[in-house]
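step: validate -> pass
step: tokenize input -> pass
step: predict -> running
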Amino acid sequence: MKIDIKQIQYAPGLYLVATPIGNLGDISIRALETLHGVDIIYCEDTRQTRKLLQAYDIKTRTSAYHDHSSEAVRKKIVNQIRGEGLSIALVSDAGMPLVSDPGYKLVQDIVRENIPVTSIPGANAVLTALQLSALPGDSFTFLGFLPHKQGARKSLLQQWEKCPVTLIFYEAKQRILKSLQDVTDVYGNRRVVVARELTKAFEEVLRGSVTEVMEQLQAKADIKGEFVLLIEAAEEVALPEEEMEKAITSALKDNIPIKVLSEEIARKSGWTKKDVYNLALKLKDK
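step: predict -> pass
step: emit ->
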């Protein structure tokens, strides 16, 4: 694709550049200018990034930076910026770097050295799936990839069973049905959404109860693509007053300050902090 890209001289520093999650047209002009103008592009997979660079006739040299990169590689990058005065871009295979992708240790080192770091934002699978899901988007929690093993997967789901916001995970095609079964076992037949091949030709978003979505997937001859799994928020069910009194009394015996226990118990119980606080005052005075 031929696009007029401004020739910009980039100052020494680290530039975190978002790349398309599928459709190459989703890259921003600013991202293209950055990838064209920096001295080096560090990539999760140089072969994957070269496809993007070739599409836009960008000839900037590339090098690898991924999950298995050593501390020595990070020191090398820091030295290239600080010692050699180079401008360096960091990209992942798709989407925003550092969102379930390697890079945070490098950013930590860069920040520690007081080296400038800039984000060039763009496409992101989590937010795209959330938009398409029809689930509430005012409050959500993204928890990355679900664990590979069933025991760890169920344990994680149980930790978030009563979370009153939309839950979002990444999942691989070979485990999506197993994970949905685990969601059923832990959460019951709650409403879910699975989104795959986002922004690509075969983009698909399946919505419904867990069993309905599982049936739709099982009907397919072949399940392809990486998935975003969204789970509707748990209903907030307030604890009965008798249970609240037990929880507060126990906390008071442990000498937990009323303000602190009010915040902690309110978060788990469905009661407001003010109501918990007032009840704690009454129980304390008894």
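step: describe -> The chain has eleven helices and ten strands.
step: cleanup -> pass
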